[in-house]
Amino acid sequence: MNIPAELKYTKDHEWVKIDGDIAIVGITDFAQGELGDIVYVEVDTLDETLDREAIFGTVEAVKTVSDLFSPLSGEIVEFNEALEDEPEKVNSDPYGDGWMVKIKFNDASELEDLLSDTAYKEIIGG
Questions:
Q1: What residue stretch is flagged as signal peptide (predicted)?
Q2: Which CATH code for domain 8-107?
Q3: Whole-prediction pTM
């Protein structure tokens, strides 16, 4: 199972990469494996400011639909539009081309609540 050490994680199986005041967010390799083949990613919160843990979209797999939760408070500034035509990128490259949104976060102290790779592995039993 691929759990990159340089990323941060949430208990909701999302990963976060910090780039200045922007957080790039996607779902983990574990999450995409549990969901199965991703057929649709919906994010209808572009340009909205959300609280941490608010739902920013959904990911739909063949057998289920799961909510996506914002790991940080802030504005959804970009959606990975490539996922509209190729949602399977979430399965094939969850930490690269399969990223979902970019959030301009407004409270850096929330970063302390994100999980390290080690803490996330403990949650998923890795």
A1: none
A2: 2.40.50.100
A3: 0.96
DSSP assigned state of 120: H
Contact call for residues 25 and 16 (beta carbons, < 8 A): yes
Residue with tokens 């970009």: 78
Q: Which backbone phi and psi does 34 adopt, to 5 degrees?
A: -70, -35
In a 13 Å sphere around the CA of 107, the CA atoms on its Cβ side amount to: 14
Q: Tell me the CB-side half-sphere exposure of residue 25, using CA atoms within 13 A.
A: 32
Distance of alpha carbon 35 from alpha carbon 59, whole angstroms: 9
Distance, in Å, from the CA atom of 57 to the CA atom of 12, rounded to the nearest integer, reads 13
The burial class, CB within 10 Å (0-12 / 13-18 / 19+), for 118 is exposed
pLDDT tens per residue across all 126 residues of the chain: 799 999 999 999 999 999 999 999 999 999 999 999 999 999 999 999 999 999 999 999 998 999 999 999 999 999 999 999 999 999 999 999 999 999 999 999 999 999 999 999 999 997
Q: What's the farthest any 2 CA atoms get from each other in the chain? A: 37
